[in-house]
Amino acid sequence: MTAAQQMLDQARASTAGCTQTSEVLVRILCAKQLRVGLRSYYPGFSVRDQSNAFSGFEVDIARRIADFLGVRLVPVVVDTKTRIPLVADGDIDLVIATMSHNVQRDGEVRFVRPHYYASQSVVVGARDRTVHDWDDLVGQTVCLPSGAISNIVFIRHHIRILTFDQPEQLLDALEFNECAFVMHDNTFFAEALMRPNWANRFAVKFGFAPTPWGMAVARSGAKQFAALLDELSVAFHVDGVFLRLARDHGLDDVFLLEEQSRWALPRCIAADGMVEANCLIPPVDTSDANDVSMMAAQAAWLEKAATNWLGLRLDLSPLKHQSAIGLLLEGVGYSLALVVGVVLTTTAFALSLAWLMTHGPTAMRLGVAGLAAIGQTSPLPLLLFFGFVVAGGVTQYSGFVALGAAVVVIGFYNGTNAAQAIKDAHQAVQGRSFLSAVSAAGIQLFAFLINATKGSPAAGMIGVPEFLNVTTDLTAYSRDRVAVYLLLLLFYTGLVLAVIALLSRLETWLGNFVRRSS
Amino acid sequence: MIETIRNFAPELLAGILVNLQVAAGAVAIGLGVGVPVALLREWVPLSRRIVWPCVRLMQAAPVYVVMYFILSMLSRDLSLFGEPAAGLVAVTLAQSVYMTAYVAENGYRALEHLRRDERNLALLFLPNLLRGAVLVVMSSGFGAAIGVSEAVAVTMREAARLHAVGQRVALFLVVIALFAAVFGVANAAIQTLVRWLSTPPKLAPLVLEKV
Question: Which domains does chain A carry?
Answer without folding.
Answer: 2-116+214-279 (3.40.190.10), 119-211 (3.40.190.10), 320-517 (1.10.3720.10)
